[in-house]
Task: structure prediction
Amino acid sequence: MTVDDVFAGQVTVTNIVGGSARWAQVGYWIDRRYAGQNIIPTAVALVVDYCLLELGLHRIEVAIRPENAASLRVVEKLGFTEIGYAPGYLHIDGDWRDHRLFAVTTEDIPGGMLRRFKEQGGG
Result:
């Protein structure tokens, strides 16, 4: 992701599963200089729309460390549903870290996530 031609962050789509599952995981980060400007929520909404509307996936999941307030705010702004808590989910900084799990499906966002985000005053 770039802002004014400067590398500012990243949105990744991983663990794409086809067949009867049709889901993937999304992760994201942004340089502190660009935080709080709706850049990540807009980028995540674009990626989710691409995955659901163009690739034909049905579900997108996001896993967030409980103490990561900024990332939690992103899924809140975008209307993801909290679906669970995963103890020891990822090995980060030398230890297994717990994560809160969030998801959205095509039925949750008819017309797309970006459209809904903009209608709610974001982006």
